[in-house]
Amino acid sequence: MRMRIFLFLMIFPAIVNAQWNLLSFKAGVYTPYDLKTGAIYGIDYGTVFDNNISLMLSGDLYYKSIINENYLDNSERLGINIRTGQRLSEWIGWHLPITAKIRFEIPLERSLLRPYAVAAIGYGVTHVSYTAFDNNNQDNEGNSFTYNGVVWQLGAGLLYRIGRNTDLLFEIIQNSAEFTEHEDFNRFTTLNSSGLIFRLGVSLEFLR
Fold it and tell me: What tens digit of pLDDT does each residue of 35-47 get?
C-alpha cells in the first residue's frame, strides 16, 4: 500500500499540469515466463514535454485462452458435413499492468526514423483460471487464482513518421511482474508473469 501511494504522489503533479496530446495504440505478442505465450494489446495517453521526452499513462492487456476439444465423429446433414465434438477443458490467463511511462526519443538528422528508449513503473494484476468439463454428468471442476503487485518495464523501439502528426512504431519491452502471495503458516506462493513484449502500433500527436 505504501508503494502505491508513493507512486501516485510521484506522478500526480505531472498528471495535473500536463496538456494531454499524445495517443498510441499497440498490439503484439507477449512471452511470459510462467504463463502461455499470447496476444497483448496496449494504449498510451500522455503529453510531449519537448521534442524528445514524453510522459504517458499506459495500460496493457495480455490474454490467452486454451481450449481442449475432442471430435467424436462426422455426419452429413442437409448436404453438408458436420462434426460432433466435446469440450474437455479450458485454460484462461490474463495480465493487466497499469503504468506511468517516460519515453526518450533519439533524434536523427534528415531521417524519418526516431529510435527511443522507454521506462515505466506501476501496478499489475494476473488472473488464471482452469475448468475441466465432465460431459457425463455436467459436473465441472475448476480453480482460479489472482496475483497482484508492482510492475516495471524497460524497453526500446522505433518511430517512423508517416504523416505530419502520425508515426508507426515497433517496440520490444521487458515487463517485470513477479508477484508473491502470503498464505497461512508462514507459507507463500509466487507467480512470475514477467516476459518480453514484441508489438507494432500507431502513435498520434494532436495539434496544440
Answer: 999 999 999 999 8
- pLDDT at residue number 135: 65
Between CA 14 and CA 207 the distance in angstroms is 20
The CA-atom distances, in angstroms, between 88 and each of 21, 71, 82, 130, 180 are 48, 10, 19, 11, 31
DSSP state of 208: -
CA distance 165 to 203: 8
Residue 150: predicted pLDDT: 93
Within a 10 A sphere around the Cβ of 14, how many other Cβ atoms?
A: 15
Q: How many Å apart are CA 38 and CA 40, to the nearest integer?
A: 7
Residue 83, classified by CB atoms within 10 Å of its CB into exposed (0-12), middle (13-18) or buried (19+), is exposed
> Nearest-CA neighbor of 57 among 112, 12, 88?
12
Q: What is the pTM of this model?
A: 0.79
- Degrees (nearest 5) of the Cα angle 135, 137, 143? 70
17 touches 27 (CB < 8 A):
no
Q: Residue 48 — φ and ψ, nearest 5°?
A: -100, 115
Cell 499489475 appears where? 124
